[in-house]
Design goal:
Length: 255
Amino acid sequence: THAIGGRVETDIGRDITFGVESYWRNWDMLSFSNMVMRITSMNSIPDVDTRTVGTYIDFRHAFMEKLKLSGGFRVDHATTQVDVANFNSDLYYLYQNTRSLHNQDNYPSGNVRVNLGLAKGMDLFVGVGSNARIPDGEERYFNRKTPMAVTVGNPLLPSTRNTQADAGFTLNLGRSYIKPSLFYSNLDNYIVVNEQPRQNMPSSGMMPATAGSYQNVNARIYGGEIGYAFGLPHSLTLSGGGSYSRGTVDRKPLF
């Protein structure tokens, strides 16, 4: 894999930042099979390029000493494409009923967060946000068959959207602090592994009735975390944290 990217941003006044961000990622994987002294190769991840460009604006403003508002909004455009000349898309057609080798994703994201000072050394925070993740090169374009099994991506996968809310507080006591928080995420089109039934008949030979692949489900993840630090004698500090999360989906995927 290779990746390169960067961003340029500028402050607009004291409370607003505007920027543009872009990256390119390539994922290329070749697998080999040795059957009866005959070595064959296959583009398991067929030189997939992902190019993304997005523009964003961040803001933060203190309405008073104890009330602060921050957030942001961005829009991204992404393309994902197979760059192997004369690539054989038969496995996609057999199991996903498509020969698509190119995808475009356009998705907005945004968040807002409020910090409120309740008392000396104690701050409450509440935030909500929504963003998206495009499927990677493996999830959309994996392509491998053996005499016993087939594993194939799903070129038709849409982006996963995560809408999340979190809340918590920070309590500062000199050199010590504790910061517990809770979160709840609703994920539309969350990507999981499945056994994909064959959609079309092969033109020649035998192919398995199902293939390992990827599908979308609706899911939820919720939990919490806590961070802490305690000041000790001789300028020592004990710090750490912990977290717990649980996820559920609307239906159990078939493996």
